[in-house]
Amino acid sequence: MYLASGCAPIPEMLRTGVTVGLACDGPASSNNHNIIQAMKFAALQQKGVHQDATIITAEKVMELATIDGARAVGLRLGAAVDHAVEVAVDRDREPVGTYRAGEP
Prior knowledge:
single chain; globular
């Protein structure tokens, strides 16, 4: 959305068997590195473009950012993905990309 480059047809890609991964991009195209925000926008964008609130579930978006993301870049699944899911759902942790002034 930041670069006005369109919307990936994620539901269609998934239906045809494409492995789709979701990740944070750099500041040149999104101004942050917050995977939770990327997950939110991915879901909202698909729902808006397709005008269907059920087009993609929160569970599927979580898979895109964890298990499917690992598959998309050729990583073996296992403990690292399990840890990523734990971190993503731990509401007491600060979001990735949150920095306080004066901290290294």
